[in-house]
Amino acid sequence: MAQVSSSRVSPDFWAGKRVLLTGHTGFKGAWAAIWLTRMGAEVTGLALPPDQIPALFTLAGVEHRVRSHLTDLRNPDAVRAAISGQAFDLVLHMAAQPIVRASIEDPITTFETNIMGTAHLLQALRDQPALQAALVVTSDKVYANAETGRAFAEGDNLGGKDPYSASKAAAEIVVQSYARSFFKTVPLGTARGGNVIGGGDFSRDRIVADIVRAARGGEAVVLRHPEATRPWQHVLDCLAGYFVLLQRLASDPDAPRAINFGPKPGGPQVTVGELATLGVQALGGKPWRHEADPHSLEARALAIDAGLAKRVLGFESRLDAPQAVALTMDWYRRQGAGEDPFALCLEQIEGYEGAA
Predict the structure, then answer these.
(1) Which CATH architecture has domain 11-354?
(2) Buried b vs exposed e over 189-201: b needs ≥16 C-beta within 10 Å?
(3) Closest by Cα among 275, 157, 283, 261 to 215
(4) Strand segments (E) across the chain
(5) Predicted model pTM
(6) Rounded CA gap, 91 and 45, in Å?
(7) Domain boundaries of the chain, sorted by first residue
(8) How many helices, marked H, and strands, marked E, lie in the chain?
């Protein structure tokens, strides 16, 4: 197979590819499904039903654009049955329990979903003879964080003091073990993305979704840690990184197997409070207010080094944090005014591609 060396998402590469996408009912997964099908990929989705109303999956009609299996990854028999008799070229595993506070409330479900769910999927994929590559999405929170503010690189120690972070670090080890034990000729990689924002996220305990709900309800959004910094990244930048890495994994046996994806190095940092202020200004909501949570395990400072992606893949994010916030809030403003969510997603995807 010819090596795909481009640092850009290649529609020619994805056209006709049989893609298994887990987590297609979630926020990032719905965007991925829309983008992949736009490029001509044949997408099969595997996930639980949406866990919130509204959901981008429903608003944008994603269930009508992919072959959708509503399946619990914690059930290995259900996973095998859902993909039995189908052949896939590529796998993008995004299904997860993604919320830190939810992991503290229910750590067992988080561990079962993020660790064993990944193992069940990889076990089922051992019967896929046409498989070219698989990418497991973990998190920027997989690193042992001493709260120094230093940007984490791929060689840093894995860790996690809350159940979500620990589950994603453990998923990294699961992938490594399957790669060395069973997938010796099929590249398995992991992608460690930053804090992703974008239109269509209505999840519980997600800052942008909380800002939107508060603004639309005429309330002030409550912030636990307004001083906290995060590597904010627009969903299109994050997905573009995943797609470029999968392109490389499928064509280059020497491609790196774990890569960070985050904002441009040196770009402006935006605190949680600054993000909320930008959101309130864009949506016309009330000023946010602060209610401290002394028992919170969430990191105050988090940054990742995305230099390896640029050096090896030639890929870096195009949108800085203020641009990502502006694009996100424009989506919500227009969707709230009655514009079609699917059309809004397509417009932003096309604009992103055209700016390459």
Answers:
(1) 3-Layer(aba) Sandwich (3.40)
(2) bbbbbbbbbbbbb
(3) 283
(4) 18-22, 42-47, 67-70, 90-93, 133-137, 188-193, 195-197, 222-223, 232-234, 258-261, 289-290
(5) 0.93
(6) 10
(7) 11-354
(8) 14, 11
Diameter of the chain by CA atoms? 56
Instruction: Read off the tokens for 70.
Output: 């509503």
Tokens for 261, please give them.
């994806």
70: exposed, middle or buried (C-beta count within 10 Å: 0-12, 13-18, 19+)?
Answer: middle
* Cβ-based neighbours of 294, under 8 Å, separated by 6 or more: none
| Alpha carbon distance 50, 47 (integer Å) | 8
- Gap between the Cα atoms of 164 and 206, Å rounded: 14
Per-residue pLDDT of the chain (356 residues; tens, 9 = 90+): 334 445 899 999 999 999 999 999 999 999 999 999 999 999 999 999 998 889 999 999 999 999 999 999 999 999 999 999 999 999 999 999 998 889 999 999 999 999 999 999 999 999 999 999 999 999 999 999 887 778 899 999 999 889 999 999 999 999 999 999 999 999 999 999 988 999 999 998 888 999 999 999 999 999 988 988 777 899 999 999 999 999 999 999 899 999 999 987 777 778 899 999 988 888 888 999 998 776 666 656 678 899 999 999 999 999 988 889 899 999 999 999 999 999 999 999 999 998 76
Q: Cα–Cα–Cα angle for 44, 205, 148, nearest 5°?
A: 100
Both structure tokens of 167: 């589950």
Task: Please state, in angstroms and rounded to a whole number, the distance separating the CA atoms of residues 99 and 328.
Answer: 20
Give the C-alpha separation, 139 to 5, whole Å: 25
Indicate the helix (H) or strand (E) that contains 327. helix 321-336
Integer Cα distance of 25 and 202 in angstroms: 12
CB-CB contact of 191 with 137 (8 Å):
yes
Q: Could you tell me which residues come within 8 angstroms of residue 195 by beta carbon, excluding any fewer than 6 positions away?
A: 140, 230, 231, 232, 233, 302
